[in-house]
Amino acid sequence: MSRLHAVLAAIDEGLNASMERWFELLRMPSISADPAHAEDCRRTAQWLANLLADMGLKASVEETGGHPVVLAHSVDTMHAAPRVLFYGHYDVQPVEPREAWHSDPFKPEIRTGADGRARVYARGAADDKGQLLTFLEALRAWMQVHEGRPPFPVTILLEGEEEIGSPSLDAFLKARKADLQADIALVCDTNQWDAETPAITTRLRGIVHDEVVIKGPNADLHSGLYGGPVPNPLHVLARLVSALWDEEGRVTLKGFYEGVSDLPATLRRQWAKLGMDDARLLAEVGLKPPAAGEKGYTALEKIWARPTAEVNGMGGGHMGPGAKTVIPAEAFLKISFRLVGRQDPQAVREAFREHVRQHLPAGFTARFAEAEAGAPAIEIPEDSPPVKAAAAALEEEWGRAPVFMGCGGSIPVVGSFRHILGMDTLLVGFGLPDDAIHAPNEKYDLTSFHKGMRSWARIMARLAETTM
Amino acid sequence: MSRLHAVLAAIDEGLNASMERWFELLRMPSISADPAHAEDCRRTAQWLANLLADMGLKASVEETGGHPVVLAHSVDTMHAAPRVLFYGHYDVQPVEPREAWHSDPFKPEIRTGADGRARVYARGAADDKGQLLTFLEALRAWMQVHEGRPPFPVTILLEGEEEIGSPSLDAFLKARKADLQADIALVCDTNQWDAETPAITTRLRGIVHDEVVIKGPNADLHSGLYGGPVPNPLHVLARLVSALWDEEGRVTLKGFYEGVSDLPATLRRQWAKLGMDDARLLAEVGLKPPAAGEKGYTALEKIWARPTAEVNGMGGGHMGPGAKTVIPAEAFLKISFRLVGRQDPQAVREAFREHVRQHLPAGFTARFAEAEAGAPAIEIPEDSPPVKAAAAALEEEWGRAPVFMGCGGSIPVVGSFRHILGMDTLLVGFGLPDDAIHAPNEKYDLTSFHKGMRSWARIMARLAETTM
Q1: Based on C-alpha coordinates, what's the Rg of chain A?
Q2: Mean pLDDT, chain A, whole residue set
Q3: What ipTM does this complex have?
Q4: Which of B39, B91, B205, B361 is the most exposed place for a label (fewest CB within 10 A)?
């Protein structure tokens, strides 16, 4: 591993130059949501393509119909090592409310906190410009030390529409499938557990939405003249919602837990040691224990590894000011289910629809929204070779083993890579919970940037030697 | 009772003249809700005051701050008979949608149906111009036959704001309390059971409203990142609503049934014979049995004589189109309770608030609307002297005993008479369920008008001899 040490030394020595490139990237206001910044997005893509070409990759700006994609390939493909696809996104969130920023969001500023830690403040400092550069700068140092050769055959894919839901990405992946083949994808867009503890995100919950309008009486009725014998759609809605959980907090839909497997004991133990107890998690949102949800699981386990049914919206009847004595003709419900393991989105939705139908009084009807596909959960086994390789590398750099984190939300690109390109994704990132991504005064710690680059160099060394 | 027969003969002979006065009253567009018709309301009030003066009463138009009140007193007060206050309202509902009318709403038209029954179509034909005239025209005939003497000391109070919630009435009753003293109030603004069966409405449910906003997390949360351990205000709302009833359909609020007495067996038997079974009542609103509500009661009993809890509106979270993965910070509920017997509106509201508080997870708060007074139920004992007198009179006219009806909604003036003037109200009316009051093509059957007048003459004769 003497060559790795040379790469790490090159990263340390090149830190100022890397930061200059980072700042230059941050000065480009590549706000994908704002059409006024379309040209800035294109300029950013071109700047990144130049950066990659300068590193020795074959790079191009590719049209998508929306903001362009930056695509780059290593030219030396004689390696026996696994092929890697690295994904990042160069677009950023809007900056509103602008007045809440302490410095210009597109003039990166280094400020040192009371804790002595230096941080770079700018829109995109972390998400995802800082994060994606940790990989690219590590790759640059690697190739510099290895006479222009990368650690493995590598493809770089930098998207410009992540913050607006990646409307063009899936079509691009399908059209360019052959160019994007790899053994594993790497994404640098997630967090560490905390400033001292690295993490690999191995579990992403899936999701399926549904929406229903329940129709009862043939018109809105006077609640005095009809109240009592006439079933009220709002009562029906309340009953079918509250019947979604049993006394143990388990979702009652038929077959809901099919495909849900128990959390490995090692993971439960690791998570239990993180200090995130129910009181701490609930305090974040202004509440106190006991937590809601399934009995027998910690709050963290519920978010990272257990499925849920969550009502996102409901209503009916008189919703304006004051009183109105009405039994409404209908009521609506919007719901989503977070999925884990091998839960099937379609089966869950169908079980929900059956639950609704079974709660309808005689003469009631239910009108469901058009069924969307939903997304199954993603789980990368913690003992799979790439995860083990990355874990060992992170432990070397940080002096402690990474946490295998879950993510309660979904990261759509990971599903796209699995379903379109047929590959798993290794999610390693160096963001911190206080980075304020999507918010005013976004920042990225200088140590995140520096040790992030070093972490990637170590991961590169290990992945290059991993058989997948 | 020979003088009664002379009164009935005078009514029969004077039918055409009575109808002319009715039509003249109907031609005045006294729409209280529309400021453009304020002058029409005043003109109608003056017309009625002239009518009453012409009959031999001391009549005046009285200012209220809103549309005026017509007030009239009999001048001959030497009677030993009970004093009577008759109430009606001369204002009418708007006519929209105008295009749905088959004739001009303010040009009364007689049309004979396929069933051979003649009906008068006009806004207010029934509600309340036709109905109030049945009493006034009967009184006119009585006084005509009795040398100008009424059957009892009588005060006439005709309001012009009933269709807009009687905003000025209570203040007027309080200010003129001394002028309005009587032993009983008569109101002609209710229905018969059907075209052949007269009715006395002896039970009006009371009502109390409440409204609450439940506040949970300190902000709207991402349902992926927090879904599971964080209590969702919409779930809390659904649970507390569905917990309002037990398996038997009984309201679970503490002390809710205090003051609710069993329905007399005679009344249950009478109602059971009316042919209004659950299937027929639910079919009216497009539904089928089984009915909702308390087990062990018919649909009619539930509406006329049992209390309810009815959600009139609720909502929270994402209510617009499409999906949004949110756990909302709050949710709202609007509810009303229909009351019977001696249920106390304040106690019911307080029990509801306690129920809400008991369902709140730790850290949640509930913000209730400002408490309004609510209205207790009204029940006039079916065996009280005025009800018995009216029942006997109606049976004489119609050849069958009247139904003692309940009314699921409230008639606020009845509560005002009880609470401000300290008197009970006898509710006798000749409307039919198909009169289309408040709707296009409102009508009043000619037999309702004619037999209504005859009914009042008979009631006058009996009430004059009743000791209260």
Answers
A1: 25
A2: 95
A3: 0.90
A4: B39
Which positions in chain A touch B362 (Cβ < 8 Å)? 287-290
| Helix (H/G/I), strand (E/B), else coil: A89 | strand
**Amino acid (1-letter code) at residue A149:** R
Q: Name the residue among B142, B166, B140 with its Cα closest to residue B458.
A: B142
CB B2 within 8 A of CB B63: no
Q: Collect all residues with Cβ–Cβ distance below 8 Å to A320 and sequence separation of at least 6.
A: none
CATH topology of domain B206-260+307-368: Alpha-Beta Plaits (3.30.70)
Instruction: Decide if B82 contacts B181 (C-beta within 8 A).
Output: no
The alpha-carbon gap from A224 to the nearest alpha carbon of chain B, in Å, equals 4
Cα dihedral across residues A149, A153, A159, A162: positive or negative? negative
d(CA A230, CA B303): 9
Which residue is closest to B304 within chain A, CA to CA?
Answer: A225
Q: Which tens digit of pLDDT belongs to each residue from A424-460?
A: 999 999 999 999 998 999 999 999 999 999 999 999 9
Return contacts of A2-9, CB within 8 angstroms, 24+ apart.
Answer: A3/A145, A3/A146, A3/A461, A4/A457, A4/A458, A4/A461, A6/A145, A7/A138, A7/A141, A7/A142, A7/A145, A7/A146, A7/A457, A7/A460, A7/A461, A8/A141, A8/A454, A8/A457, A8/A458
A312·B327 Cβ contact <8 A = yes
Map tokens 């704001």 to a residue: B161
pTM, entire model = 0.89
Hunting for tokens 């067996």 — which residue is that? Answer: B265
- Interface probe for B, chosen from A308, A314, A360, A378 (most Cβ of B below 10 Å), is A314
Are residues A313 and B310, on separate chains, in Cβ contact within 8 Å?
Answer: no
Contact B128, B90 (CB under 8 A): yes
Model confidence at A84, pLDDT cuts 50, 70, 90, reads very high
Q: CA A261: distance to chain centroid?
A: 22
Q: Which of B11, B412, B19 has the alpha carbon at shortest distance from B204?
A: B412
Q: How far is CA A250 from the centre of its chain?
A: 25
Using the Cβ of B408 and the Cβ atoms of chain A, whether some distance falls under 8 Å is answered with yes
- Burial (CB < 10 A; 0-12, 13-18, 19+), residue A100, is exposed
A218 neighbourhood in chain B, CB within 8 Å: 285-286
Locate tokens 């659904």: which residue? Answer: B238
Superfamily (CATH H level) for A2-204+377-464: Zn peptidases (3.40.630.10)
Q: Least CB-CB distance to B312: which of A238, A318, A332?
A: A318
Hey, is the C-beta of B190 within 8 angstroms of any chain A C-beta? no
Measured from the Cβ of residue B433, the count of other Cβ atoms closer than 10 Å reads 11
Query: Does the pLDDT value for residue A25 go beyond 80?
Result: yes
Helix (H) and strand (E) counts in chain B: 14, 18
Identity at B55, one-letter amino acid code? M
CA dist A87 and A453 (Å) reads 15
Domain positions in chain B are 2-204+377-464, 206-260+307-368
Q: Could you say which DSSP state residue B308 is in?
A: E
Residues 6+ apart with CB under 8 A from B376: B206, B339, B342, B343, B344, B345, B415
Q: Which of B209, B293, B363 sits opposite A228 (nearest CB)?
A: B293
Could you say which DSSP state residue A343 is in?
-
The label of the residue with tokens 């003039």 reads A107
Q: Which helix (H) or strand (E) holds B458?
A: helix B446-464
Provide the pLDDT for residue B78: 67
Question: Is-same-fold flag (A2-204+377-464; A206-260+307-368)?
Answer: no
